[in-house]
UniProtKB/TrEMBL annotation, chain A:
Residue ranges occupied by any ABC transmembrane type-1 domain in the UniProt entry: 88-279
Main subcellular localisation: membrane
Subcellular location(s) of the protein: Cell membrane
Organism this protein belongs to: Prauserella endophytica
Gene3D superfamilies hit by this protein: MetI-like
Keywords assigned by UniProt, alphabetized: Cell membrane, Membrane, Transmembrane, Transmembrane helix, Transport
Pfam families assigned: BPD_transp_1 (PF00528), OppC_N (PF12911)
Transmembrane segments: 27-46, 90-116, 123-144, 150-170, 201-223, 257-282
Name assigned to this protein: ABC transporter permease
Superkingdom of source: Bacteria
Membrane topology field: Multi-pass membrane protein
Protein family according to the UniProt entry: Belongs to the binding-protein-dependent transport system permease family.
Automatic annotation (TrEMBL), chain B:
Region feature Disordered, mapped onto this chain: 263-286
One Pfam family, short name: oligo_HPY
Transport among keywords: yes
Domain of life according to the entry: Bacteria
Family annotation (PROSITE patterns): ABC_TRANSPORTER_1 (PS00211), ABC_TRANSPORTER_2 (PS50893)
Protein name: ABC transporter ATP-binding protein
UniProt-annotated location(s): Cell membrane
Similarity comment: family membership: Belongs to the ABC transporter superfamily.
Annotated membrane topology: Peripheral membrane protein
Listed SMART domains: AAA
């Protein structure tokens, strides 16, 4: 690309950040997310991984919160704080990776299906319908039992099964955008498919995709926990989902061990909330109409 | 005689986001039964706010001061129950835009019956009889009660709206732009219908519109609003003939009288037009720069039946001339324009540019589009709301990879479209511009490619009256200064009279009459052209003068 175009993009990015900074909710969400991500990445440096080992666990099972174990212990006598800390790594990784995969497939299929009329659109829509009517959990289970067990299998299973709703959404939005007269104007100016999609459709669809992404991250984290519970996850790693499920299956809940249940649950709530705040703030920045209303 | 409606020192202030905007200031108006009062003004002049305030239909953010006396009773102090009773049974509204004011999923008969059921305890058979009677009053067959809104034409929907307004036999009807979206012929019918109702039943009619000629045709008295105030009020013919306020003059000039030599090649614009350059006398034999030869476009409707949108059209747009394509909506004008631009594939026939067939390959079309450019009807939606003026104008040159300094190219195009000083517009977004400025940006975007033909689809239909003349002046100036040919699609014969060299009249997919403006508009040969000309509001004015 020529340099003026890049310069324009750099200024656009700078403007976007300046606008974003004025949105308090978005800023809070971003800070929380950044804190969680940094802590998750730095976990091996600031904590002792050996505490996750069932054999070398030091505490007694289901010990309530105390000075030694701030959030109590689990059924195996491990620190819940440490587990939540490390669980963030797997949950975030699977959540992000599966979302990226799902949103990428969904956006691509959605835009292509809406932009190109005729048989490509018909074929893509039928494929989308096929995935939409297929129970995604069953498909994910089937996929992860056929493939080798591990985190990336779960990412693939969630990503491949959760894109159809994004595709439908993006297709609907693309059709709305493409009916606007400025698309006709761009065509009359001589713009090709790449120009129309890149300059007009994608920027208009992006806010929706971003908002959708926040939801997909949440549902991906939940899907990951479901698969982990069914024994399809990586048994060697701890995630928030598997913590919740162990808490339920081991009778920790009936024993009144709220400290085992709450931390992973609240962690999921906080992370989904942060994503929503950031997504909404970004949407406000990207959509000039919303900006004018404030 | 007691007044039916009296506004005393009416003021309306909208408070949005901590800011108070005074929409209406010190308006005093009165209307007696059997009278018609026209309120004219541009968008934002507060004319619709006045209408809505009569029935207290304004949003919560509006603060109303002054008195609104409906039959001597002040609407502003009415209790809720009384207000509900007054709404529709004493005064009713014909809303703007019939296509959006009707519920699309209910039959129109049901919608007409709704106010009757709400306000009276008539038994069901009587309600139905009343609906039939109302439909007859507005000249619709009674079977239409079973239709859904989408099955009716624009004029029929507007009649349904009027039938709804009449449902409870109100004494006052407020019609807010009742004919704006309609064709001239339908407009004439709707206005005649409203006029008859006033004469026969002695109701009062308040007609609100931006088109002074419509008011002149139907209203005994006219009030002109400008920035929330009534700047001029008086008998209709006097206001039209001798406007005192300059805003009234601007409004009156924006809608020229066809056949008036003073407005020929003289749209209402503040900037002087350049003199007519020496043009070679048009040769009937030379093929146009852009030409259609036996062009046909056929669509299939939902039942699979063929609809001939364009049925064998031969049209030439020569260098250095403006051709106006006139016709009703649904006559195939827009389809013809899209086909000329290569946005729609013709079923048969051909489009020629400079004597050569317009290519169908995407690379060939891209090259063709540097020469022939489009200006759309609604500038509000023709610009991507996310793109700045700079990006919108630079879009074409970027697509075509034009060499040279992009910034100076954009500035040049903006200056050519008379956005001055051009620098101040570069970083603005479309929603920060007025309608006229937006349309200029669209034109600048087309000019940036230095085309030789401009196809403009209703370029001023969605603009205010005072802006209309400026945009038309711009098109005429571009033709005179740059020799830019244009095909202007319009339903407005006055526009053709203002700027066009030749007129092509389109009716049901065919060109029924093509020729120089003076010949076609002053001595029409085809029946359809004659009926179009007869339906112009100035024509009805004369008819109603005889009738009254």
């Amino acid at each position: 690309m020529t340099s003026p175009a890049w310069q324009r993009r750099r200024t656009a990015a700078r403007d976007l950040w300046r606008e974003f900074r004025t949105n308090r909710g978005g800023l809070v969400g971003l800070c929380v997310l950044a804190a969680i991500v940094v802590l998750a990445v730095l976990a091996p440096l600031i904590t002792d991984e050996s505490g996750l080992d069932v054999i070398s666990a030091t505490g007694t099972p289901l010990q309530p919160p105390s000075g030694e174990y701030w959030l109590g212990t689990d059924v195996d006598g491990r620190s819940v704080l440490l587990l939540t800390f490390w669980g963030a790594r797997v949950s975030l990784l699977v959540g992000f990776a599966a979302t990226v995969l799902s949103v990428f497939i969904g956006t691509l299929v959605g835009i292509v299906a809406a932009h190109f009329q005729g048989w490509p659109s018909a074929v893509l829509l039928r494929v989308t319908d096929f995935f939409l009517v297929l129970p995604s959990l069953v498909l994910a289970i089937a996929l992860s039992s056929v493939l080798t067990k591990g985190v990336w299998t779960i990412v693939l299973a969630i990503g491949v099964t959760s894109w159809p709703s994004t595709a439908r959404l993006v297709r609907a939005q693309t059709l709305t955008i493409e009916s606007r007269p400025y698309i006709e104007r761009a065509k009359a100016l001589g713009g090709g498919h790449a120009h129309l999609i890149g300059k007009h459709v994608l920027p208009a669809v992006l806010p929706l995709v971003l908002a959708n992404t926040t939801l997909v991250v949440g549902s991906s984290i939940i899907a990951e926990s479901t698969l982990s519970f069914l024994g399809l996850g990586d048994p060697t790693s701890v995630s928030w989902g598997s913590m919740l499920q162990t808490a339920l299956s081991s009778g920790a809940v009936t024993a009144g061990a709220w400290w085992y249940l709450l931390p992973p649950g609240l962690a999921i709530v906080v992370i989904v909330l942060s994503f929503t705040l950031v997504g909404r703030a970004l949407e406000t920045v990207l959509n000039p109409r919303l900006k004018a209303g404030r | 005689m007691s007044q039916l409606l009296e506004l005393r020192n009416l003021g309306v202030t909208y408070s949005t986001g901590g800011e108070a905007v005074q929409a209406v200031r010190g308006v005093n108006l009165a209307l007696a039964p059997g009278e018609t009062l026209g309120i004219a003004g541009e968008s934002g002049s507060g004319k619709s706010t006045v209408a809505l305030s009569v029935l207290r239909l304004l949003p919560r953010s509006a603060n109303v001061t002054g008195e609104i006396l409906l039959d001597g009773e002040d609407v502003t102090t009415m209790r809720w129950g009384r207000l509900r009773a007054v709404r529709w049974s004493s005064a009713s509204v014909v809303f703007q835009g019939a296509m959006h004011a009707l519920n699309p999923v209910r039959r129109v008969g049901e919608q007409i019956a709704e106010p009757i059921r709400l306000h009276t305890d008539l038994p069901e058979p009587k309600v139905r009889a009343r609906v039939t009677e109302l439909l007859e009053q507005v000249d619709l067959p009674s079977e239409k009660a079973r239709s859904y809104p989408h099955e009716l034409s624009g004029g029929q929907k507007q009649r349904v709206m009027i039938a709804m307004a009449l449902a409870c036999e109100p004494r006052l009807i407020l019609a807010d732009e009742p004919t704006t979206a309609l064709d001239v012929i339908v407009q004439a019918q709707v206005l005649a219908l409203l006029g008859e109702l006033v004469a026969e039943r002695g109701i009062g009619l308040v007609l609100i519109t931006h088109d002074l000629s419509v008011l002149a045709a139907t209203c005994r008295r006219i009030a002109v609003m400008y920035r929330g105030e009534v700047v001029e009020e008086g008998p209709g013919d006097e206001v039209m003939a001798r406007p005192r306020h300059e805003h009234t003059r601007a409004l009156a000039a924006a809608f020229p009288t066809v056949g008036d030599p003073a407005s020929r090649f003289a749209p209402a614009t503040a900037n002087p037009l350049p003199p007519e350059p020496d043009r070679a006398t048009p040769d009937e034999e030379t093929p146009g720069l852009l030409a259609a030869r036996d062009l046909r476009v056929t669509f299939r409707d939902r039942r699979g039946e063929a609809v001939h949108a364009v049925a064998g059209v031969d049209l030439d747009v020569r260098r250095d001339e403006i051709v106006a394509l006139v016709g009703q909506s649904g006559s195939g004008k827009t389809t013809l324009a899209r086909t000329l631009l290569g946005l729609q594939r013709p079923t048969a026939g051909s489009v020629l540019y400079d004597g050569r067939l317009v290519p169908t390959s995407s690379a060939g079309l891209k090259e063709y589009r540097r020469q022939v450019q489009l200006v759309l009807q609604d500038p509000a939606s023709a610009l991507n709301p996310r793109h700045t003026v700079y990006e919108a104008v630079a879009e074409g040159p970027r697509i075509h990879g034009l060499t040279g300094d992009e910034r100076s190219l954009v500035l040049e195009a903006l200056a050519a479209a008379e956005l001055r000083p051009a620098e101040t517009y570069l970083s603005r977004l479309p929603h920060e511009l007025s309608g006229g400025q937006r349309q200029r940006v669209v034109i600048a975007g087309a000019l940036a490619l230095r085309p030789s033909v401009l196809v403009a689809d209703e370029p001023v239909a969605s603009l205010d009256a005072s802006v209309r003349g400026e945009i038309l002046g711009l098109l005429l100036r571009l033709r005179r200064e740059l020799g830019l040919a244009a095909l202007v699609i319009t339903h407005d014969l006055g526009l053709a009279w203002n700027i066009a060299d030749r007129v092509a009249v389109m009716y049901r997919g065919e060109l029924v009459e093509v020729g120089p403006v003076e010949q076609v508009l002053l001595e029409p040969r085809h029946e359809y052209t004659k009926s179009l000309l007869a339906a112009l509001p100035t024509g009805t004015a004369r008819a109603s003068e005889r009738g009254v």
